[in-house]
Fold this protein.
Amino acid sequence: MTSPRRALVVVDVQQEYFSGPLTIQHPAPEDALANVVRAVETARAHDVPIVLVQHAMPAGAPIFAAGSPGFDLHPDLLAVTDPRDERISKSFGSVFAGTGLADRLREREVDTVTIVGFMTNNCDLASAVEAEGLGFSAEVLSDASGAIDLDNAVGHVPAAVLHETLMVLLHSNFAAVATTQQWVEAVAGAQPLPLDNLVDSAVRGRARVGG
């Protein structure tokens, strides 16, 4: 089995997600952050390229305004960064949209992107889905990411339900979903994470409800 050529993409681990209306609700943000840091340390130890992403909005925007405190990376993440890490800003959900990141990863012969950070229900989802069309395999670490409660005209979804649902959705087709510990072991062994597929997920889903 071919060993994956990974890059760790750390998505928007910014202060906006630790206070205010976008505070991560599930998993607990401090736990998710600790797992992001562990993933970075593991990547560093195994020479996995690291990409640090920040969402940027124009000055005066209510969130993610460039130069504002909410735009800054969390200090715990900054403590384990290195000048060799690539740093990019984005203005769309996907880390690939308008950033040129896909081309730079291809130049480094990366074929697998490991996604950690925030939010499950926005930038992580968008990045994992776009990775497929760009020819990358995707991995998402379920305990190094997180979701928020959502409520709009269509309905209400608690963060825990939203996070679990999106992890199941991603693992059924778009990405290998694993815990940080499982990923650490896979990186150490130069092994891919196990993948599922839509057909098998559908068959098991029907069997579970007696269909």
In short: The chain has one domain: 6-208. The mean pLDDT is 96. The longest strand covers residues 137-146.
